[in-house]
Design the sequence.
């Protein structure tokens, strides 16, 4: 009987010990889970740090830390490769710009020479192809610079109404060459924003460049005061269903998949990067008025 009691006491103590150890292991796993969550949400480079009392759990934590270290190194290598690729693209684009400029100049000189109608036709084709290639190279170069620059652009007070007016005047002949009629709606009041003038002009140029490709007769530019300064650039579209609004700012997006002439398709993507660099936003939408579909680009800036 005495032996039985001793055995029961020993078993009871063993159960208590195992229960306590189980509780401690469960608590360690709970803390380890919390550490992993912090690592994922707050700082991917941090290691999990938990006081553990079980060797198997310790080995699990060690493997998790090894995996974090491996992922960290992979991330660094990927970032290094990305920067090297961007630099290579920038270097290649830069190296191509000079010979392309020379080629364009030589083709312009040839255009002044006397030649047969057939020769002039082929010369015209060559000039258009050279212009297309230069436009593509310029886009790749600008994109590589934008994506590699870490510093913010210098922002200054800009009178939006004056900027839009000057932009239309400076591009009047080019707009006319594309048989387009601009419809401009500007407020009488002065609207000031903090932006980079060159970047904003480049954005307007990219949006108008998109209109050159797809608009048929006219386009609109509106400036209005809402919660901020809103700049709307829009044009009529024949088939709104062919436009993927959700992806219109993606790299190399084209509404007409078969159309590859003119650029690398980076204009709208670059426009979005430029606007965001200036603390603004840009959105695209399809509006319908009187059964007429319009593609609308809406740029928003806080008012100074």
Sequence:
């Amino acid at each position: 009987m005495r032996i039985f009691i001793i055995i029961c006491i020993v078993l009871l103590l063993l159960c208590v010990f195992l229960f306590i150890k189980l509780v401690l292991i469960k608590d360690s796993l709970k803390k380890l889970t919390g550490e992993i969550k912090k690592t994922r949400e707050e700082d991917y480079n941090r290691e999990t740090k938990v006081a553990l009392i079980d060797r198997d759990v310790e080995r699990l934590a060690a493997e998790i830390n090894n995996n974090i270290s491996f992922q960290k190194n992979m991330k660094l290598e990927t970032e290094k490769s990305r920067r090297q690729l961007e630099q290579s693209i920038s270097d290649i684009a830069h190296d191509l710009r000079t010979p392309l400029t020379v080629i364009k100049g030589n083709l312009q000189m040839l255009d002044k020479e006397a030649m047969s109608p057939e020769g002039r036709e082929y010369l015209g084709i060559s000039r258009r192809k050279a212009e297309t290639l230069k436009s593509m190279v310029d886009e790749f170069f600008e994109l590589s610079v934008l994506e590699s620059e870490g510093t913010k652009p210098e922002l200054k007070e800009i009178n939006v109404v004056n900027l839009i007016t000057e932009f239309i005047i400076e591009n009047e002949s080019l707009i006319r060459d594309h048989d387009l009629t601009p419809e401009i709606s500007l407020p009488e009041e002065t609207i000031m924003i903090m932006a980079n003038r060159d970047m904003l002009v480049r954005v307007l140029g990219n949006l108008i460049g998109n209109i050159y490709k797809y608009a048929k007769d006219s386009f609109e530019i509106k400036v209005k005061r809402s919660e901020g300064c809103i700049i709307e650039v829009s044009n009529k579209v024949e088939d709104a269903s062919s436009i993927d609004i959700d992806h219109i700012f993606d790299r190399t997006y084209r509404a007409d998949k078969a159309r590859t002439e003119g650029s690398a398709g980076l204009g709208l993507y670059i426009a979005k990067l430029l606007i965001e660099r200036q603390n603004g936003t840009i959105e695209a939408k399809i509006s319908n008025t009187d059964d007429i579909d319009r593609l609308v680009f809406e740029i928003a800036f806080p008012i100074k």
Summary: DSSP finds seven helices and seven strands in the chain.
